[in-house]
Amino acid sequence: MAPYAAFLLLGLLAPAAVLASWDIDEDVRLDTIGLLTKYGYPAEVHEVTTDDGYILSLHRVPYSPVSPLQEGKQKPVVFLQHGLLCSSADWVVMGPGAGFVYILADAGYDVWMGNARGNTYSRRHIKYKPNGLFNSKFWNFDWHEVGLYDLPASIDYVLEQTGEEKLFYAGHSMGTTAFWVMTTQRPEYNDKIRAMFALAPIAYMGYMTSPFFQLLSLANKPLEFLLNIMGVNEFLPNNELMTLGGKLLCQDKALTQFMCENVLFLIAGYDSEELNSTMLPVILGHTPAGASTNELLHYAQEIVSFKFRQWDYTATNLFHYGSLTPPKYKLSKVTAPVALFYSGNDWLAAIKDVDKLYSEISNPIGKFKNSHSKFNHLDYLWAIRAKELVYDQVLSLMTRY
């Protein structure tokens, strides 16, 4: 098996032989495990069933002392949770030396990656099916259930398999939202976290500036009504057409490549300096990975309300909650050590919203504003200098816990 070698994907120096062997087309097609295996990393697939019947896939890069890049002995477990419309592949697609999972593995950590219900790798349930005309029961969830069921089941499984009592948690975007849900609704899970690293943290969204989500919030209730009538329960699943479109329209020689860049920028914020356009076909071969439409609509509710609270049933809140308005998530119950990584050009995690979140959690490590003024919401995953601007700081903080 190939060694854990340094690899160039985003403008970093690497041996010419490694570059010559890199096949973008193959990386578009390979799944998370295939990508890890291709680049010489040990990889495992695990399954866990949630209390409400969803069967989730967990992907693992176990500690392997054969790596010349690892620093001696094995370090603790790290659990990575992706954002909205994403999957474990987001931590992997940029390749060795750039993707966060590789950097953690090279540093000696036992790395596990979650996959939320409904994405490419977690489309099974003990009773319900994700496809067909009568699939509404499968898709009847939002990120509240990801935090209430998916994360606890995954964390318990990882701790049982590894024999550890606690783990590090790093989440991006919705991966942070679900963490706030878990630690407020099931506060006993705070004690299972060594430290939590929130990349582009999302709780409050009243000040976000993304045109896409602003439009979504304006049309929130009519859109919810329309989607329910039409039976549209899933949003942007990964499929062959999406993969082919990404490959044809977004490759380096395509005249339409700038359109692919602008779609990402209009959602997340403009930062052409940190986007390696060559990687767009690979990114779009894996993302979007599918989500429940309710996950987007719940965020739209947060934008309109300026609050961080459970799903708003409007006319039937009294029946569901015993109150006219949805319960707020009590962020004071988040007692695990938390570090917030944010940026001035993030159109989804606005500074005012991050500040409000920071003021309410009980045990903050600190707020860490990105030094690059144009750093956007997706740069935490795919920026050319993500290691330098984010990951190295996370690794440094891990050594303290």
TrEMBL record:
Signal sequence, renumbered to the chain: 1-20
Record keywords: Glycoprotein, Hydrolase, Lipid degradation, Lipid metabolism, Signal
Keyword Endoplasmic reticulum among UniProt keywords: no
Pfam families according to UniProt: Abhydro_lipase
Domain Partial AB-hydrolase lipase: 36-94
GO molecular function annotations of the record: hydrolase activity, acting on ester bonds
Family note: Belongs to the AB hydrolase superfamily. Lipase family.
Protein name: Lipase
UniProt organism field: Gryllus longicercus
